[in-house]
Amino acid sequence: MAFDAERFTHDSDRAALKALQAIPGFSLLTKGFMSIWNEPQQKILNMSTRIRLDENQMKKYYDMLPPICGKLGIAVPELYLERDVNANAYTYGDTTPFIVMTSGLLETVPDELIPTVLAHECGHIACHHTLYHTMGRMILSGASGAMSYFLKFGGLLTVPLQMAFYHWMRCSEFSADRAAVLCDGSAEKMQEVCMRLAGWDKDNTAEGNVAAFLQQAVDYKDMINESTWNRTLEFISLSAATHPLMAVRATECGVWAQSEQFSRILNNIPDPVEAKPAEEVADRGTEPQEAEQPFDFFSFLRPKQPEKAPEAAPQAVDADLENELRWYQKMVEEGLITQEQYDEKKKELLGR
After folding, report:
1. First vs last Cα of the chain: how many Å apart?
2. How many Cβ atoms from other residues are within 10 Å of residue 46's Cβ?
3. Which are the contacts of 71, defined by CB distance < 8 A and separation ≥ 6?
4. Range of the domain at 335
5. Residue 142 in 3-state DSSP?
6. Which residues pair with 92 in a beta bridge?
7. Which residues contact 317 (CB under 8 A, 6 or more apart)?
8. Which of 179, 191, 244, 291 could form a disulfide with 12 if both were Cys (CB 3.0 to 4.6 A apart)?
9. Residue at 283 is within a domain
10. Mean pLDDT per 10-residue segment, the chain (352 residues)
11. How far apart are CA 226 and CA 233, in angstroms?
12. Whole-number Å distance between alpha carbons of 25 and 20
Protein backbone atom coordinates (compact mmCIF):
# COMPACT_ATOMS: atom_id res chain seq x y z
CA MET A 1 0.00 0.00 0.00
CA ALA A 2 1.30 3.46 -0.91
CA PHE A 3 2.16 6.00 1.76
CA ASP A 4 -0.55 8.64 2.24
CA ALA A 5 0.94 12.11 1.69
CA GLU A 6 -1.68 13.63 3.96
CA ARG A 7 -0.18 11.70 6.86
CA PHE A 8 3.46 12.72 6.31
CA THR A 9 2.94 16.35 5.28
CA HIS A 10 4.78 18.57 7.74
CA ASP A 11 2.66 20.81 9.99
CA SER A 12 4.66 23.89 8.99
CA ASP A 13 3.99 23.07 5.32
CA ARG A 14 0.23 23.08 5.93
CA ALA A 15 0.35 26.26 7.99
CA ALA A 16 2.59 28.10 5.51
CA LEU A 17 0.38 27.14 2.56
CA LYS A 18 -2.71 28.31 4.41
CA ALA A 19 -0.99 31.62 5.19
CA LEU A 20 0.13 32.04 1.58
CA GLN A 21 -3.35 31.41 0.20
CA ALA A 22 -4.86 33.84 2.71
CA ILE A 23 -2.77 36.82 1.56
CA PRO A 24 -4.77 39.20 -0.65
CA GLY A 25 -3.81 38.90 -4.30
CA PHE A 26 -2.68 35.27 -4.25
CA SER A 27 -5.54 34.05 -6.45
CA LEU A 28 -4.91 36.89 -8.89
CA LEU A 29 -1.20 36.03 -8.98
CA THR A 30 -2.06 32.39 -9.73
CA LYS A 31 -4.36 33.41 -12.57
CA GLY A 32 -1.74 35.76 -13.98
CA PHE A 33 0.86 32.99 -13.92
CA MET A 34 -1.47 30.46 -15.55
CA SER A 35 -2.29 32.93 -18.32
CA ILE A 36 1.38 33.01 -19.38
CA TRP A 37 2.89 29.64 -18.46
CA ASN A 38 1.91 26.31 -20.00
CA GLU A 39 3.23 22.77 -19.67
CA PRO A 40 3.53 21.91 -23.39
CA GLN A 41 5.99 24.78 -23.82
CA GLN A 42 8.04 23.48 -20.91
CA LYS A 43 8.12 19.99 -22.40
CA ILE A 44 9.41 21.41 -25.67
CA LEU A 45 12.26 22.99 -23.69
CA ASN A 46 12.97 19.69 -21.90
CA MET A 47 13.02 17.65 -25.09
CA SER A 48 15.25 20.09 -26.94
CA THR A 49 17.81 21.08 -24.32
CA ARG A 50 18.00 18.29 -21.70
CA ILE A 51 18.66 14.54 -21.76
CA ARG A 52 15.57 12.43 -21.10
CA LEU A 53 16.40 9.39 -18.99
CA ASP A 54 14.41 6.23 -19.70
CA GLU A 55 14.87 2.52 -20.48
CA ASN A 56 17.17 3.46 -23.38
CA GLN A 57 19.12 6.33 -21.83
CA MET A 58 21.14 6.06 -18.59
CA LYS A 59 18.83 3.27 -17.52
CA LYS A 60 20.41 2.81 -14.09
CA TYR A 61 19.07 6.19 -12.97
CA TYR A 62 15.64 5.78 -14.54
CA ASP A 63 15.20 2.35 -12.93
CA MET A 64 15.51 4.01 -9.52
CA LEU A 65 12.28 5.92 -10.13
CA PRO A 66 9.38 3.38 -10.54
CA PRO A 67 9.84 1.67 -7.12
CA ILE A 68 9.79 5.08 -5.41
CA CYS A 69 6.65 6.12 -7.27
CA GLY A 70 4.98 2.88 -6.24
CA LYS A 71 5.71 3.60 -2.58
CA LEU A 72 4.28 7.12 -2.86
CA GLY A 73 1.31 6.20 -5.05
CA ILE A 74 2.12 8.51 -7.97
CA ALA A 75 2.56 8.03 -11.70
CA VAL A 76 6.16 7.77 -12.89
CA PRO A 77 7.18 11.29 -14.03
CA GLU A 78 9.56 12.02 -16.86
CA LEU A 79 13.17 12.33 -15.70
CA TYR A 80 15.72 14.67 -17.28
CA LEU A 81 19.40 15.48 -16.87
CA GLU A 82 20.74 18.96 -17.53
CA ARG A 83 24.26 20.35 -17.55
CA ASP A 84 24.73 22.54 -14.49
CA VAL A 85 27.73 22.56 -12.15
CA ASN A 86 25.44 23.26 -9.18
CA ALA A 87 24.30 20.11 -7.39
CA ASN A 88 20.52 20.23 -7.62
CA ALA A 89 17.32 18.43 -8.51
CA TYR A 90 13.92 20.04 -8.96
CA THR A 91 10.37 19.27 -9.98
CA TYR A 92 8.23 21.40 -12.30
CA GLY A 93 4.77 21.08 -13.78
CA ASP A 94 1.17 20.67 -12.69
CA THR A 95 -0.95 18.03 -14.42
CA THR A 96 2.15 16.20 -15.76
CA PRO A 97 5.06 17.03 -13.44
CA PHE A 98 8.64 16.09 -14.32
CA ILE A 99 11.96 15.86 -12.47
CA VAL A 100 15.28 17.37 -13.52
CA MET A 101 18.67 16.38 -12.10
CA THR A 102 21.80 18.40 -12.75
CA SER A 103 25.18 17.03 -13.80
CA GLY A 104 26.57 18.69 -10.68
CA LEU A 105 24.32 16.51 -8.52
CA LEU A 106 25.75 13.32 -10.05
CA GLU A 107 29.27 14.67 -9.47
CA THR A 108 28.53 15.48 -5.83
CA VAL A 109 26.26 12.71 -4.55
CA PRO A 110 27.20 8.99 -4.75
CA ASP A 111 24.93 6.84 -6.91
CA GLU A 112 23.60 4.95 -3.89
CA LEU A 113 22.07 8.22 -2.61
CA ILE A 114 20.42 9.27 -5.89
CA PRO A 115 17.24 7.27 -5.07
CA THR A 116 16.94 9.33 -1.88
CA VAL A 117 17.15 12.54 -3.92
CA LEU A 118 14.54 11.22 -6.36
CA ALA A 119 12.27 10.18 -3.46
CA HIS A 120 12.47 13.73 -2.14
CA GLU A 121 11.41 15.12 -5.52
CA CYS A 122 8.62 12.54 -5.82
CA GLY A 123 7.52 13.66 -2.36
CA HIS A 124 6.82 17.09 -3.80
CA ILE A 125 4.61 15.48 -6.44
CA ALA A 126 2.78 13.33 -3.87
CA CYS A 127 2.15 16.41 -1.71
CA HIS A 128 0.85 18.42 -4.72
CA HIS A 129 3.58 21.05 -4.39
CA THR A 130 4.52 21.18 -8.04
CA LEU A 131 2.31 23.96 -9.41
CA TYR A 132 3.16 26.42 -6.65
CA HIS A 133 6.82 25.38 -6.75
CA THR A 134 6.87 26.09 -10.47
CA MET A 135 5.30 29.48 -9.84
CA GLY A 136 7.69 30.26 -7.03
CA ARG A 137 10.89 29.34 -8.83
CA MET A 138 9.95 31.02 -12.10
CA ILE A 139 8.59 34.23 -10.60
CA LEU A 140 10.80 34.76 -7.58
CA SER A 141 14.06 33.92 -9.32
CA GLY A 142 13.32 36.14 -12.30
CA ALA A 143 14.38 33.29 -14.57
CA SER A 144 11.24 33.48 -16.67
CA GLY A 145 12.04 36.82 -18.27
CA ALA A 146 8.86 38.46 -19.57
CA MET A 147 6.72 36.44 -17.18
CA SER A 148 8.64 37.65 -14.14
CA TYR A 149 8.51 41.24 -15.41
CA PHE A 150 4.77 41.06 -15.98
CA LEU A 151 3.93 39.53 -12.60
CA LYS A 152 6.43 41.49 -10.50
CA PHE A 153 6.24 44.90 -12.05
CA GLY A 154 2.61 44.56 -13.06
CA GLY A 155 1.82 44.69 -9.37
CA LEU A 156 0.67 41.08 -8.99
CA LEU A 157 3.62 39.93 -6.88
CA THR A 158 3.56 42.06 -3.74
CA VAL A 159 6.18 42.02 -0.98
CA PRO A 160 3.90 40.09 1.42
CA LEU A 161 3.30 37.48 -1.29
CA GLN A 162 7.02 37.16 -1.97
CA MET A 163 7.80 36.63 1.71
CA ALA A 164 4.97 34.13 2.17
CA PHE A 165 5.95 32.29 -1.02
CA TYR A 166 9.56 31.91 0.10
CA HIS A 167 8.43 30.75 3.53
CA TRP A 168 6.07 28.11 2.15
CA MET A 169 8.70 26.81 -0.27
CA ARG A 170 11.11 26.30 2.63
CA CYS A 171 8.45 24.54 4.72
CA SER A 172 7.44 22.29 1.83
CA GLU A 173 10.96 20.85 1.74
CA PHE A 174 10.37 19.26 5.15
CA SER A 175 7.41 17.29 3.74
CA ALA A 176 9.47 16.09 0.76
CA ASP A 177 12.31 15.11 3.11
CA ARG A 178 9.82 13.01 5.08
CA ALA A 179 8.81 11.22 1.88
CA ALA A 180 12.45 10.33 1.24
CA VAL A 181 12.92 9.08 4.81
CA LEU A 182 9.82 6.90 4.47
CA CYS A 183 10.99 5.43 1.16
CA ASP A 184 14.41 4.64 2.66
CA GLY A 185 12.97 3.38 5.94
CA SER A 186 15.34 5.53 8.00
CA ALA A 187 16.84 9.03 8.10
CA GLU A 188 20.51 8.11 7.55
CA LYS A 189 20.58 8.49 3.77
CA MET A 190 18.67 11.77 3.71
CA GLN A 191 20.97 13.14 6.42
CA GLU A 192 24.01 12.19 4.34
CA VAL A 193 22.44 13.80 1.25
CA CYS A 194 22.10 17.05 3.23
CA MET A 195 25.75 16.87 4.25
CA ARG A 196 26.84 16.10 0.69
CA LEU A 197 24.90 19.09 -0.63
CA ALA A 198 26.37 21.25 2.13
CA GLY A 199 29.89 20.60 0.85
CA TRP A 200 31.04 17.00 1.34
CA ASP A 201 31.68 16.12 -2.30
CA LYS A 202 31.87 12.42 -3.15
CA ASP A 203 35.41 12.95 -4.50
CA ASN A 204 36.49 14.32 -1.14
CA THR A 205 38.45 11.45 0.44
CA ALA A 206 38.40 13.00 3.92
CA GLU A 207 36.21 11.11 6.37
CA GLY A 208 32.89 12.84 6.97
CA ASN A 209 31.08 12.76 10.31
CA VAL A 210 27.30 13.04 9.98
CA ALA A 211 26.86 13.16 13.77
CA ALA A 212 29.11 16.21 13.97
CA PHE A 213 27.12 17.78 11.14
CA LEU A 214 23.90 17.23 13.08
CA GLN A 215 25.46 18.86 16.14
CA GLN A 216 25.83 22.02 14.06
CA ALA A 217 22.04 22.30 13.96
CA VAL A 218 21.87 22.05 17.75
CA ASP A 219 24.54 24.74 18.15
CA TYR A 220 22.79 26.87 15.54
CA LYS A 221 19.45 26.66 17.35
CA ASP A 222 21.09 27.53 20.68
CA MET A 223 22.70 30.57 19.08
CA ILE A 224 19.43 31.75 17.51
CA ASN A 225 17.60 31.40 20.82
CA GLU A 226 20.20 33.47 22.66
CA SER A 227 18.64 36.78 21.70
CA THR A 228 15.88 38.50 19.77
CA TRP A 229 18.53 40.10 17.59
CA ASN A 230 19.84 36.70 16.50
CA ARG A 231 16.31 35.59 15.65
CA THR A 232 15.88 38.78 13.61
CA LEU A 233 19.14 38.09 11.75
CA GLU A 234 17.90 34.57 11.02
CA PHE A 235 14.64 35.92 9.61
CA ILE A 236 16.49 38.40 7.40
CA SER A 237 18.88 35.71 6.15
CA LEU A 238 16.09 33.29 5.29
CA SER A 239 13.54 35.78 3.96
CA ALA A 240 14.59 35.16 0.34
CA ALA A 241 15.67 31.49 0.66
CA THR A 242 13.74 28.68 -1.02
CA HIS A 243 15.27 25.88 1.09
CA PRO A 244 15.86 25.40 4.82
CA LEU A 245 19.41 25.16 6.14
CA MET A 246 20.96 21.76 5.40
CA ALA A 247 21.95 20.91 8.98
CA VAL A 248 18.46 21.85 10.18
CA ARG A 249 16.86 19.63 7.52
CA ALA A 250 19.10 16.71 8.48
CA THR A 251 18.17 17.07 12.14
CA GLU A 252 14.46 17.34 11.32
CA CYS A 253 14.73 14.07 9.36
CA GLY A 254 16.22 12.35 12.40
CA VAL A 255 13.46 13.60 14.69
CA TRP A 256 10.80 12.48 12.20
CA ALA A 257 12.32 8.99 11.88
CA GLN A 258 12.11 8.55 15.67
CA SER A 259 8.46 9.61 15.90
CA GLU A 260 5.48 7.34 16.49
CA GLN A 261 3.81 8.78 13.40
CA PHE A 262 6.72 7.66 11.21
CA SER A 263 6.55 4.15 12.67
CA ARG A 264 2.80 3.94 12.10
CA ILE A 265 3.03 5.08 8.48
CA LEU A 266 6.01 2.84 7.71
CA ASN A 267 4.21 -0.18 9.16
CA ASN A 268 0.84 0.74 7.66
CA ILE A 269 -0.80 1.24 11.06
CA PRO A 270 -3.77 3.67 11.06
CA ASP A 271 -3.64 6.72 13.28
CA PRO A 272 -5.67 6.17 16.47
CA VAL A 273 -8.07 9.03 15.78
CA GLU A 274 -11.20 6.98 16.45
CA ALA A 275 -10.35 6.68 20.15
CA LYS A 276 -10.15 10.45 20.68
CA PRO A 277 -12.95 12.94 21.33
CA ALA A 278 -14.11 14.84 18.26
CA GLU A 279 -12.79 18.17 19.51
CA GLU A 280 -9.36 16.68 20.23
CA VAL A 281 -9.20 15.09 16.79
CA ALA A 282 -10.07 18.44 15.23
CA ASP A 283 -7.13 20.03 17.03
CA ARG A 284 -4.53 17.40 16.09
CA GLY A 285 -3.10 19.46 13.26
CA THR A 286 -2.27 22.38 15.53
CA GLU A 287 -0.63 20.54 18.44
CA PRO A 288 3.03 21.32 17.52
CA GLN A 289 3.10 25.00 18.48
CA GLU A 290 6.60 25.62 17.13
CA ALA A 291 5.42 25.11 13.56
CA GLU A 292 3.03 28.05 13.93
CA GLN A 293 5.55 30.54 15.35
CA PRO A 294 7.17 31.64 12.04
CA PHE A 295 3.87 33.11 10.91
CA ASP A 296 4.11 35.85 13.52
CA PHE A 297 6.43 37.58 11.04
CA PHE A 298 3.55 37.97 8.58
CA SER A 299 0.99 39.31 11.01
CA PHE A 300 1.90 42.91 10.24
CA LEU A 301 1.55 42.28 6.50
CA ARG A 302 -2.04 41.09 6.52
CA PRO A 303 -4.96 43.51 6.72
CA LYS A 304 -6.85 43.14 9.98
CA GLN A 305 -10.16 41.34 9.58
CA PRO A 306 -13.29 42.79 11.18
CA GLU A 307 -14.13 41.02 14.43
CA LYS A 308 -17.79 40.57 13.59
CA ALA A 309 -19.40 38.57 10.79
CA PRO A 310 -17.06 35.51 11.05
CA GLU A 311 -19.03 33.81 8.26
CA ALA A 312 -17.53 36.25 5.72
CA ALA A 313 -14.28 34.26 5.48
CA PRO A 314 -15.83 31.09 4.04
CA GLN A 315 -17.69 33.21 1.48
CA ALA A 316 -14.40 34.74 0.30
CA VAL A 317 -12.82 31.31 0.01
CA ASP A 318 -15.78 30.02 -1.96
CA ALA A 319 -15.55 32.97 -4.31
CA ASP A 320 -11.83 32.41 -4.88
CA LEU A 321 -12.41 28.72 -5.49
CA GLU A 322 -15.19 29.46 -7.96
CA ASN A 323 -12.95 31.88 -9.84
CA GLU A 324 -10.10 29.37 -9.93
CA LEU A 325 -12.36 26.64 -11.29
CA ARG A 326 -13.68 29.07 -13.89
CA TRP A 327 -10.09 29.77 -14.91
CA TYR A 328 -9.31 26.07 -15.39
CA GLN A 329 -12.53 25.69 -17.40
CA LYS A 330 -11.29 28.44 -19.68
CA MET A 331 -8.06 26.50 -20.15
CA VAL A 332 -10.13 23.49 -21.27
CA GLU A 333 -11.96 25.66 -23.79
CA GLU A 334 -8.66 26.97 -25.15
CA GLY A 335 -7.23 23.47 -25.45
CA LEU A 336 -4.47 24.00 -22.88
CA ILE A 337 -5.63 21.08 -20.72
CA THR A 338 -8.03 18.18 -21.26
CA GLN A 339 -11.45 17.76 -19.67
CA GLU A 340 -10.03 14.84 -17.68
CA GLN A 341 -7.27 17.06 -16.32
CA TYR A 342 -9.86 19.67 -15.40
CA ASP A 343 -12.00 17.10 -13.58
CA GLU A 344 -8.95 15.91 -11.63
CA LYS A 345 -7.99 19.48 -10.70
CA LYS A 346 -11.59 20.25 -9.66
CA LYS A 347 -11.65 17.20 -7.42
CA GLU A 348 -8.35 18.26 -5.85
CA LEU A 349 -9.52 21.84 -5.21
CA LEU A 350 -12.85 20.82 -3.75
CA GLY A 351 -11.14 18.36 -1.45
CA ARG A 352 -8.70 20.89 -0.01
Report:
1. 23
2. 17
3. 2, 3, 119, 182, 183
4. 312-352
5. coil
6. 98
7. none
8. 291
9. no
10. 94 93 83 75 89 96 97 96 95 90 96 98 95 82 52 62 88 96 97 94 90 92 88 79 86 95 94 58 44 37 44 49 66 64 77 64
11. 12
12. 10
